[in-house]
């Protein structure tokens, strides 16, 4: 089990690296030059809201493409991924009054994994539809542990 934190989706959303082949990552130093190609992190403070929202959008696309690439490259029959956010972005991205809901997605090669959550009212794909159920994080945790943990005694 691993937790992968996608920091690119946290402010200041620059620099966003280019996706590279996993074999080329090495010790990560390949990303140093990419950081110099973009605006410095403090540049966020001089941007208008529409630019900041676009930067945030690009960071989410990068994070999801990176995770999808990982699944395509290394995902075996037993891989199960749970994508979830820990909070909504800042109001400069969402606008005033946005809720605190974040999407959660389970990705699995084995259909039996998804069968365990088939009664949750979720649909296929990475983007929940507007009718998707909304639960507190603690409720998702409890449902997840009930579905995949040891049987209750």
- The number of E-state strands comes to 2
Adjacency order of strands in the biggest sheet:
1-2
Mean pLDDT over the residues: 83
The biggest sheet, with number of strands, parallel, antiparallel or mixed sense and barrel status, is: 2 strands, antiparallel
State the shape: globular
Helix segment count?
A: 5
- How many domains in all? 2
- End-to-end separation in angstroms reads 24 Å
Strand percent estimate? 5-15%
SSE order, one letter for each helix or strand: HHEHEHH
Segments where pLDDT lies below 50 for 5+ residues?
A: none
Portion of residues within helices: 25-40%
Based on helices, strands and strand pairing, what is the structural class? Answer: mainly alpha
Nearest-angstrom radius of gyration? Answer: 18 Å
Word description of this protein:
The chain is 36% helix and 7% strand. The two termini are 24 Å apart. Strands 1-2 form a two-stranded antiparallel ribbon. It has helices at 30-37, 49-74, 91-94, 111-115, 137-148, and strands spanning 80-84, 104-108. By secondary structure, it is mainly alpha-helical. It is globular and about 55 Å long. The protein is built from 5 helices and 2 strands; from the N terminus they run ααβαβαα. The protein has 2 domains: 1-74, no CATH class; 81-153, no CATH class.
Brief description of this entry?
The protein is 36% helix and 7% strand. By secondary structure, the chain is mainly α. It folds into two domains: 74 residues, no CATH class; 73 residues, no CATH class.
